[in-house]
Write a structure and sequence with these properties.
This protein is of the alpha+beta class. The protein has three domains: about 1-55, Arc Repressor Mutant, subunit A (Orthogonal Bundle), CATH 1.10.10; about 65-255, BirA Bifunctional Protein, domain 2 (2-Layer Sandwich); about 265-305, SH3 type barrels (Roll), CATH 2.30.30.100. About 30% of the residues lie in helices and about 30% in strands. The longest helix has 18 residues, at about 140-155. The structure holds biotin.
Length: about 300
Amino acid sequence: MKGKILKILKAEQGVVSGEAISSELGISRVSVWKHLQKLQEFGYNIDASPMGYRLISSPDVLFPWEFPDRERKIHFFPEVTSTMDIARDFARKGCPHFTVVVAGCQNRGRGRLKRTWLSSQGGLYFTTILRPQISPVLSLRVNFAASLILAQTLNNMFDINARVKWPNDILVDGRKISGILSEIEAEADIVSFINVGIGININNDPTDSEPKAVSLKQLSGSEISRKRLLSDFLDNFEKCINSKALDNIIQEWKKYTVTLNRYVKIVTHHEVLEGIAVDLDENGALILELADGSTKKVLYGDCFHK
Ligand code: BTN
């Protein structure tokens, strides 16, 4: 209902009487008033006068009603342990394809290889639950799609040159602006769900413990709308996931990467490898040329550009 009330206020751009809202939505004037009070508590600047209500400004909040086309599939929590935890529960309980779990902050945000992902207010933290009808082998492509689409969305919205680093980081001028973590469950040969968790430094200031990180606010010098970025990214990502684009994603991703043709160190749970990153295979494994001239494929790991 709050979304519908906001829609009326936004469309009108002037004062709208409580009576007009109540008859358009078929609810009582008291109920309209209660919803408006709640919206004011959430930070919406709504002027109330004897003539009616006028929306002066909206805060950068991520409540489902801010995403009218996908309202039923967005779940916002002001604070969670990790959106990955909530998303896994939702997925196991059968939530639909492209359900999104968003958090204002996380107190146990997770990064790849069991690292912590610091998740203070101002950043964007969300996990998208996907149910593509593909085999687990092809599931890595979904992560490459996520990082590529996010880099392209950032470049379209802002005056920056976002690039992808293997496997799924997004860098701007060598500094990390976003990281992606995914979890998959499969039955037999078909994926049950792939949860793609994305953290983006937006209006938060990365701490001294993350010297190679940067936020969009630091790059642009002003506050950025998380709402708009999330909305644009989800639209672009959904189009890609539901289309044939996934077949070509590795080729496309390679055009945006800063990892290929350079000397890298790869750290996995059980080994450290160094060599030249010469290519990616069709599923996104990195092909390294080692010092002795042999090549080796690496499926996962941390990559350090040297
Ligand atoms: C990495 O670069 O190591 C991956 C970071 C992924 C962070 C995101 S924030 C939303 C989702 N919830 C988490 O706990 N982690 C991912």
